Amino acid sequence: MNKIVLLGRLTAKPELRYTAQNIALVRFTVAVNRTYASADGKREADFINVVAWRKQAENISKYFDKGNLIAIEGRLQSGSYDDKDGNKRYTLEVALDNFEFVESKAAREATSAKAATEPTPYDYQDVQPQEVSVENDPFAEFGDSVSIDDNFLE
Question: 30: domain CATH number?
Protein backbone atom coordinates (compact mmCIF):
# COMPACT_ATOMS: atom_id res chain seq x y z
CA MET A 1 0.00 0.00 0.00
CA ASN A 2 1.34 3.43 -0.93
CA LYS A 3 -0.71 6.20 0.69
CA ILE A 4 0.37 9.59 2.04
CA VAL A 5 -1.81 12.04 3.98
CA LEU A 6 -0.41 15.52 4.70
CA LEU A 7 -1.62 18.69 6.35
CA GLY A 8 0.61 21.69 5.83
CA ARG A 9 1.15 25.15 4.40
CA LEU A 10 2.31 26.02 0.91
CA THR A 11 5.79 27.56 0.85
CA ALA A 12 5.13 29.54 -2.35
CA LYS A 13 2.36 30.37 -4.82
CA PRO A 14 1.84 27.29 -7.04
CA GLU A 15 2.63 28.07 -10.69
CA LEU A 16 0.54 26.30 -13.32
CA ARG A 17 2.39 24.85 -16.32
CA TYR A 18 1.38 22.71 -19.28
CA THR A 19 3.10 19.74 -20.87
CA ALA A 20 3.75 19.53 -24.62
CA GLN A 21 0.46 17.57 -24.81
CA ASN A 22 -1.34 20.53 -23.14
CA ILE A 23 -1.91 18.71 -19.82
CA ALA A 24 -1.96 21.01 -16.78
CA LEU A 25 0.47 20.34 -13.96
CA VAL A 26 1.60 22.15 -10.86
CA ARG A 27 4.51 21.36 -8.55
CA PHE A 28 4.61 22.89 -5.09
CA THR A 29 6.12 22.35 -1.66
CA VAL A 30 4.17 21.87 1.55
CA ALA A 31 5.71 22.61 4.95
CA VAL A 32 4.45 20.04 7.46
CA ASN A 33 5.19 20.74 11.11
CA ARG A 34 6.69 17.95 13.15
CA THR A 35 4.71 16.97 16.23
CA TYR A 36 7.59 17.49 18.64
CA ALA A 37 10.02 20.27 19.52
CA SER A 38 13.79 19.90 19.58
CA ALA A 39 15.77 20.04 22.82
CA ASP A 40 16.07 23.83 22.52
CA GLY A 41 12.28 24.18 22.16
CA LYS A 42 12.16 24.90 18.44
CA ARG A 43 9.65 23.22 16.19
CA GLU A 44 10.89 21.94 12.88
CA ALA A 45 9.06 21.30 9.64
CA ASP A 46 9.52 18.88 6.77
CA PHE A 47 9.29 20.34 3.28
CA ILE A 48 7.56 17.89 0.98
CA ASN A 49 7.35 18.22 -2.81
CA VAL A 50 3.96 17.55 -4.39
CA VAL A 51 2.81 17.28 -8.02
CA ALA A 52 -0.79 17.65 -9.19
CA TRP A 53 -2.22 17.12 -12.67
CA ARG A 54 -5.12 18.28 -14.85
CA LYS A 55 -8.14 19.94 -13.18
CA GLN A 56 -6.68 19.54 -9.68
CA ALA A 57 -3.55 21.40 -10.82
CA GLU A 58 -5.67 24.20 -12.25
CA ASN A 59 -7.73 24.49 -9.05
CA ILE A 60 -4.71 24.50 -6.75
CA SER A 61 -3.04 27.16 -8.89
CA LYS A 62 -6.21 29.26 -8.92
CA TYR A 63 -7.28 29.03 -5.26
CA PHE A 64 -4.09 28.54 -3.21
CA ASP A 65 -1.30 30.93 -2.35
CA LYS A 66 1.82 30.98 -0.20
CA GLY A 67 1.01 30.18 3.44
CA ASN A 68 -2.39 28.61 2.76
CA LEU A 69 -3.24 25.44 4.67
CA ILE A 70 -3.97 22.39 2.51
CA ALA A 71 -4.84 18.75 3.21
CA ILE A 72 -3.37 16.32 0.72
CA GLU A 73 -3.92 12.66 -0.02
CA GLY A 74 -1.61 10.99 -2.49
CA ARG A 75 1.07 8.43 -3.10
CA LEU A 76 4.84 8.58 -2.90
CA GLN A 77 6.62 8.28 -6.23
CA SER A 78 10.29 8.21 -7.06
CA GLY A 79 12.07 9.18 -10.23
CA SER A 80 15.51 9.92 -11.61
CA TYR A 81 17.22 12.06 -14.22
CA ASP A 82 20.73 12.87 -15.40
CA ASP A 83 21.92 16.38 -14.49
CA LYS A 84 23.94 18.62 -16.82
CA ASP A 85 27.18 16.96 -15.66
CA GLY A 86 25.85 13.46 -16.43
CA ASN A 87 25.32 12.52 -12.77
CA LYS A 88 22.26 10.45 -11.90
CA ARG A 89 19.89 12.37 -9.59
CA TYR A 90 16.98 10.80 -7.74
CA THR A 91 13.70 12.50 -6.87
CA LEU A 92 10.96 11.76 -4.38
CA GLU A 93 7.57 13.51 -4.41
CA VAL A 94 3.94 13.01 -3.53
CA ALA A 95 1.63 12.49 -6.50
CA LEU A 96 -1.62 14.14 -5.44
CA ASP A 97 -4.82 12.08 -5.62
CA ASN A 98 -7.12 14.36 -3.58
CA PHE A 99 -6.89 17.66 -1.75
CA GLU A 100 -9.13 19.68 0.53
CA PHE A 101 -9.43 23.30 1.54
CA VAL A 102 -8.77 23.47 5.28
CA GLU A 103 -9.33 27.19 5.84
CA SER A 104 -12.22 29.44 4.93
CA LYS A 105 -11.72 31.88 2.06
CA ALA A 106 -11.39 34.79 4.52
CA ALA A 107 -8.77 32.92 6.56
CA ARG A 108 -6.88 32.02 3.36
CA GLU A 109 -6.91 35.67 2.27
CA ALA A 110 -5.71 36.82 5.68
CA THR A 111 -2.90 34.24 5.62
CA SER A 112 -1.96 35.26 2.08
CA ALA A 113 -1.86 38.92 3.07
CA LYS A 114 0.31 38.10 6.06
CA ALA A 115 2.61 35.89 3.98
CA ALA A 116 3.08 38.73 1.50
CA THR A 117 4.36 41.06 4.23
CA GLU A 118 6.45 38.71 6.36
CA PRO A 119 8.17 35.34 6.02
CA THR A 120 6.26 32.26 7.13
CA PRO A 121 7.71 31.18 10.51
CA TYR A 122 8.35 27.51 11.10
CA ASP A 123 9.74 27.91 14.57
CA TYR A 124 7.33 28.79 17.32
CA GLN A 125 9.67 30.06 20.00
CA ASP A 126 7.96 33.47 20.04
CA VAL A 127 4.43 32.08 20.44
CA GLN A 128 2.93 32.90 23.82
CA PRO A 129 0.07 30.97 25.43
CA GLN A 130 -3.29 32.66 25.04
CA GLU A 131 -5.31 33.55 28.11
CA VAL A 132 -8.75 32.01 28.44
CA SER A 133 -11.50 34.32 29.57
CA VAL A 134 -13.49 33.12 32.60
CA GLU A 135 -16.67 34.17 30.81
CA ASN A 136 -15.92 31.68 28.00
CA ASP A 137 -14.62 28.90 30.22
CA PRO A 138 -16.87 25.85 29.80
CA PHE A 139 -15.44 24.35 33.02
CA ALA A 140 -15.83 27.44 35.23
CA GLU A 141 -18.64 25.95 37.32
CA PHE A 142 -16.66 22.78 38.17
CA GLY A 143 -14.67 24.40 40.99
CA ASP A 144 -11.03 25.45 41.27
CA SER A 145 -9.03 26.41 38.21
CA VAL A 146 -6.43 24.04 36.82
CA SER A 147 -3.01 25.19 35.64
CA ILE A 148 -1.56 23.31 32.70
CA ASP A 149 2.20 23.56 32.35
CA ASP A 150 3.86 22.15 29.21
CA ASN A 151 7.17 21.90 31.10
CA PHE A 152 5.60 19.14 33.23
CA LEU A 153 6.24 16.68 30.38
CA GLU A 154 9.97 17.37 30.15
Answer: 2.40.50.140
